[in-house]
Amino acid sequence: MRSIIDISDLSVEELQELIGVAEDIIANPEKYQDACKRKKLATLFFEPSTRTRMSFEAAMYELGGNVISVSSAASSSAAKGESVADTVKTVSCYTDIIAMRHPKEGAAYVAAQNASIPVINAGDGGHCHPTQTLADLLTIWREKGRFDNLTVGFCGDLKFGRTVHSLITALARYTGIKFVLISPQELKLPSYIKKDVLKRNGLQYVQTMDLESVMPELDILYMTRVQKERFFNEEDYLRLKDSYILNPEKLKKAKPDLCIMHPLPRVNEISVAVDDDPRACYFKQVLNGKYMRMALILKLLKEAGTI
Amino acid sequence: MTVDSIQNGIVIDHITAGSAMRLYELLHLDELDVTVAIMKNVTSRKMGRKDIIKIDADIDIDLDIIGYVDPKATVNYIKDGVLAEKKVIKVPERLVNVIKCKNPRCITSTEQELKHIFKLTDRDNKVYRCVYCEVKAQ
User: Fold this and answer.
1) Are A106 and B131 a contacting pair at CB < 8 A?
2) SS3 of A68, please?
3) Of residues B104, B133, B136, nearest to A106 (C-beta)
4) Could you report the average pLDDT of every consecutive run of 10 residues in chain B (138 residues)?
5) How many Cβ contacts (< 8 angstroms) between chains A and B?
6) CATH number for the domain including B64?
7) A191 and A299 share a domain?
8) Same domain, residue pair B101 and B37
9) Interface pTM (ipTM) of the complex?
10) Do B111 and A83 touch (CB under 8 A)?
């Protein structure tokens, strides 16, 4: 049974196929309105989430399907100590596909190993969040029209930011990509990603702590939030949370066609004043996420022979 | 110092000096009720110094553990006092319940019944990563 745990579970060709389907959904939504009629999506969210869960649910409803939801660990049998394996075996009896978020890294892998229906990882701790990457990729595609020859800046928490790790892994498969990694010393990109993804693929990258100095060269600026839930020590969080705040002043040196992205939610790393800038793409990302989730649900249900 | 030769059992030879105790622990040889001899820093023409483990019983040992700890070691099966079989040791692709994931954020830290599985991701540097969270084995 095909599941999607990590963005690298999808080939470059499959990513392009999903983008093609998403664009067709955008152009012809009525064509897809009954595509998943009488099928059920289970959204198992053992960690708080607004947009990802609603995005999956909206995606399934727009495909004509239904949704059964667990919106917190406290309201599920996980609170009684039920294992992920037992939970997904049970849920497999009720539904056709699972989207799962869990605070523990690797929980989605355990789910995929035990479910008899496709599992989509909707975030497993600080590990992977492939459907956010699908949203990011569609946004880049729609804004830039290509995935090659781009200078992509990542700013903020590059250590625990799973969206950053996934997007770097996805973009590493294209040519002419240059990465600019902007973070405080304590939140630098983990060395294994630099070694296994960037160096292994011979990709160019620079590391800096200064956002403004690299701003003029960026085609894409991917801002991230310093996530409180990833810290064991609150002091470290408080010290690092406001490391970078993007405002109109800092954007003065940016390219006129810069694409500003953020996986959201933001706290204060992008000032609200930036929202009116035509280069701000983070709310487009939200919408694009729904279309890509629709495309992914369709693909996995088709591959499973469910539709 | 001399240690008796064994009639039926296993000799793990050419162990890198200093690695025998780690093998002893991971192979759970302490749980056996047969004679086990650990020889440390034995003079070797080829290696200078080496460790040797002799097990006086024909038990089933996990060669993956030996391949993980010391792929240059050799495993000799002795039957009726003579060498019956020599096993080639390879660096294993997967390790199941040999080492534990130390990442406190890993699912294995809370779900105790899960097997601890690691896969070899960098053969040259012998890097293993947890299949669940992908954190490098320590």
Assistant:
1) yes
2) strand
3) B133
4) 88 97 96 96 95 95 95 96 94 96 96 96 92 93
5) 49
6) 3.30.70.140
7) no
8) no
9) 0.88
10) yes
